[in-house]
Amino acid sequence: MIGSLAKVSDDHQARLNGDRLEESESKLQRIADAYRVLIECLGEDPNRHGLLKTPIRAAKALAHFTSGYEISLEDIVSGAIFSENVDELVVVKDITINSLCEHHLVPFVGKVHIGYIPRGRVLGLSKLARIADMFSRRLQVQERLTKQIAGAIQEVLDPKGVAVVIEATHLCMTMRGVEKSGCTTTTSSVLGLFRSDPRTRAEFFSHVNRG
Questions:
Q1: Catalytic pick from 154, 167, 172, 207?
Q2: pLDDT value at position 80?
Q3: Are strands 161-170 and 90-101 parallel, antiparallel or unpaired?
Q4: Does 49 participate in catalysis according to the annotation?
Q5: Rounded to whole angstroms, what are the CA distances from 153 to 76, 90, 121, 192?
Q6: Is 29 a catalytic residue?
Q7: CB atoms < 10 A from the CB of 98, how many?
Q8: SUPFAM superfamilies given for it (predicted)?
């Protein structure tokens, strides 16, 4: 009986996986078709040898750039929250991020600095980077991205405070528009003690600004 139930469960999971694969392939093909139209609108020939596989390559690349939509916060932190009797500042600096500006669909790239003060629970350090990746691999604006990362850490840990700083370069400023290279945009989000206590906030920023 148990073996029969296990087989039914396995068959059901296999069907679900098959449905997801079919849906994913269908979505990729629709994106590839859109890229083909875009190439034609630019005056190029999508059947030219160098462009023949560009639509599907670009579709796969875009799917990767926006893969954060397929991940949930629960998927990331599951099993990685640990009870620890600590209440001192934890800082992880220089987490590399790559995102797409939702206004022009061009990249912005930079680094995230995260700090939090535990309230008896800590999160596996790599999970902080994964949270940053999850939100950055979506269509974004930097201001919202900063707030989302801070809010997610607050949600899963309920720490005494969270602080997030992002420093990024936006290609929509360097490749178009004002075309100013070397510009960096800095945004921050501070919650809990980092907002209410200037000394705690200053301690975090001293770590961020330290070379």
A1: 172
A2: 95
A3: unpaired
A4: no
A5: 11, 12, 11, 12
A6: no
A7: 14
A8: Tetrahydrobiopterin biosynthesis enzymes-like (SSF55620)
Q: Is 102 a catalytic residue?
A: yes
Choose among 89, 95, 119, 97: nearest CA to 205.
89
Catalytic site residue 44? Answer: no
Mean predicted confidence (pLDDT) in 59-78: 96
Q: Which of 103, 143, 155, 183 is catalytic?
A: 103
User: What pLDDT band is residue 115 in, cutting at 50, 70 and 90?
Assistant: very high
Catalytic, out of 113, 140, 148, 170: 170
- Among residues 25, 41, 64, 142, the one annotated as catalytic is 142
Does the active-site annotation cover 170? yes
User: Mutual orientation of helices 125-136 and 142-157 as an angle, nearest 10°?
Assistant: 140
For residue 182, pLDDT beyond 90 = no
Q: pLDDT tens digit string along 40-54?
A: 999 999 999 999 999
Q: Are 118 and 86 spatial neighbours (Cβ–Cβ below 8 Å)?
A: yes
DSSP calls for 160-189? SEEEEEEEEEEHHHHTSTT--TT--EEEEE
- Write down all domains in the chain, each with its CATH number in brackets: 10-69 (1.10.286.10), 74-209 (3.30.1130.10)
3-state secondary structure of 128: helix
The whole-number pLDDT of residue 18 equals 64
The SS3 of residue 47 is coil
Q: Rounded distance, CA 155 to CA 64, Å?
A: 26
Phi then psi for residue 71, to 5 deg, are -120, 145
Q: Are 90 and 116 contacting, i.e. CB atoms less than 8 angstroms apart? A: yes
